[in-house]
Each structure stands twice: as structure tokens, then as C-alpha cells.
Amino acid sequence: MKKTLLALLLATLTSVSFGKTLATVDGVAIDSAVVDETVKTITAASKGQIPDSPQLRQSLLQRMVVRTVVNNEARRLKLDESAAYKNIIAQATADAERLGENKKPTFERDFAVFKENLLEQAYADYVLKNKPVTDKETKALYKEITKAYKGTQEVQLAEIVTQNDTDMQAVLSELRSGASFLDLVQKYSIDEVAKKNKGINGFVNLKDMEVAAPQLYAVIKNLNKGQYTQQPMVGNGLSVVFMVHDKRDAQIPAYETMKDNLKAQLQDERIQKNIADLMKKAKIQVNP
Q1: pLDDT band at 196, cuts 50/70/90?
Q2: What angle do CA 80, 82, 84 make, to 5 degrees?
Q3: How many other C-beta atoms are found inside a 10 Å radius of the C-beta of residue 288?
Q4: Most buried residue, 19, 23, 155, 253, by CB count within 10 Å?
Q5: What's the pLDDT tens digit per position in 230-264?
Q6: CA-wise closest residue to 77 among 28, 127, 133, 111
Q7: What is the mean pLDDT of residues 64-77?
Q8: Segment 34-60, tens digit of pLDDT
Q9: How far, in Å, CA of 53 to CA of 77, rounded?
Q10: Which top CATH class is 152-249?
Q11: Helix axes 181-188, 165-176, angle to 10 degrees
């Protein structure tokens, strides 16, 4: 599963003392200094792409609350006493000593985070071991998906992105004069990555688009292959015009092709459901 930069950095959450208690989870305090230190780590590692903000701090605090709840349950189940857990810790300790990592100033706190993350994974493994996802469940989900997408269509969009209205009006003028949309991608679009594919994206089912991007769906749904949006969509300082490069009936892969992904989806849902149940039972107090 691909992870965002923020998701990867969340795995480096550190523990520091002597700050304000932001939350208490079943008697375990979460200190403001933890959030402060983690924010520094994230902003530095992202080179400013992820700035300090109330939203970031709230997200971090929520992540810490969830991890504390899961760790508490894992310890109650004595997963930290399992041979598998102890063996991984022993091997990681030996590797750290061999590589000299244990001599770094931040090693103690970083290793504590490693153990907490490992304990989270141990809990996830415990959930799936005790209630594994079955072939019957994955086949039922596949049947549900095929039924939901039967008779739907999917589109492959091309797009031209500009940073100002002047360029966008030039794009629209040339399109009305019969210019090739894909040629104009190379001439006007500021999306250098998209230019490598002539601005063409992968296929998206219109049903999914209606849910995820209703404004885009409204202007795309009735367009045929080769037609483009007459007015640009504007937002975040950008103007975008879309063309339907291709349109076809929904292509649903065979079960065997989707089976592993369906199983992974159900496993993740099962883990999240168990964590949600733990959160409901936990005594969580968030301080203003």
C-alpha cells in the first residue's frame, strides 16, 4: 500500500516529557512536548512541504490517542510477551548495536516508537489470526462490486492546467478554432509530469467520480469522446480544462485478478473495526 509523506513520518512519532498534558487515555498521559517534537520532525523532513498548523497537530494527537489505545489492548493481551515480538526486538537491538545506531542521542526515544509501532502490528496480526478473511467473504465483495458497476461507464480524461486566466482563454480560443487538445497540453499546461503522458490520465468510473468529485462529474457526464469542458474549473490559483480522451463501458477485472486486493481491503476494514470498538470502550479525555 502506498503511503503519503505524512503517513510515513507519523511512524517516527517521538516521546518527550515535561509538557502540558493534551490527552489522557485509560490513565496514560499524552504530553504536548510529544506533539511539539513530532511537528519539528515532520516539518524538517518534509522541507516545509508540511507546515506546522493546528490541523497537523490535531491529526498527530488523534494518531497518538489511537496508538495508545491499541498498545494498551495489545499489552492486555500480552502480545508484547510473545516469542515473535521478543525475537524481533532482540534482532533489532542487535542490529542497532552492530551498526552503532544505539549511540545516537535520539536512539532511546526512536526505539521506543519502533516498539510501539511493532506492537500495533502485533495487534493487527492478532485480529486477523483470530478472525481471518475468508474466500467466501472476498467472493461476496466481488459480487457486490460487479453488481454496483454493472451498466456504468468510465472515462479517460486529458487535462490542460494553467496558472492564469489569460493562458486559459488562449487555450479555449485555439480549441474552438480546431486545435488539437493534446498539442495544446504541450504548449500551455504547467503540469510537467502530465505532459509526459500528453495530459492523459487513467480511466475513472463515472460512478466513482460522482461521489469523489461531483463538480467535475457534472460537467463530464454527458460529454462524448473528443469533447471538452467549455468553461475551465478554477481553484487553488489554477484553471483546468478537461477533454474526454476515451469513454467505454466499465471494465471489471476477473475475480482472480482482484482477489488479493479485495482480501487486503477486507482485512484493513476488519482491523479498523476492531480499533473503532476499542476506541468506544476506552476512557479518553482530551484537554482544551
Answers
A1: confident
A2: 105
A3: 3
A4: 155
A5: 999 998 889 999 999 999 999 999 999 999 999 99
A6: 127
A7: 96
A8: 888 889 889 988 888 899 999 999 999
A9: 36
A10: alpha beta
A11: 160
Domain 5-132+268-286 CATH (choose: 3.80.10, 1.10.4030, 2.60.40, 3.40.50): 1.10.4030
Q: What are phi and psi of 30, to 5 degrees?
A: -110, 120
Q: Which residues are paired to 158 by β-bridges?
A: 200, 243
CA distances from 126 to 39, 79, 85, 92, 120 (A): 31, 8, 12, 21, 10
Rounded Cα distance between 277 and 271, Å, is 10
Cα angle: 54, vertex 57, 61; to 5 degrees? 135
For residue 193, what is its C-alpha cell? 509530469
Helix (H, G, I), strand (E, B) or coil at 244: strand
| Helices and strands counted in the chain (H then E) | 12, 7
Residue ranges with strand state E in 130-267: 153-162, 200-205, 233-235, 238-249
Does the pTM of the predicted model rise above 0.85?
no
pLDDT tens for residues 111-135? 988 999 999 999 999 999 999 999 9
CA distance 164 to 234: 10
Q: Where are the domains of the chain?
A: 5-132+268-286, 152-249
Q: pLDDT: is 138 or 42 the higher one?
A: 138
Polymer length of the chain: 288
The β-bridge partners of 30 are 23
Is the pLDDT assigned to residue 169 strictly greater than 80?
Answer: yes
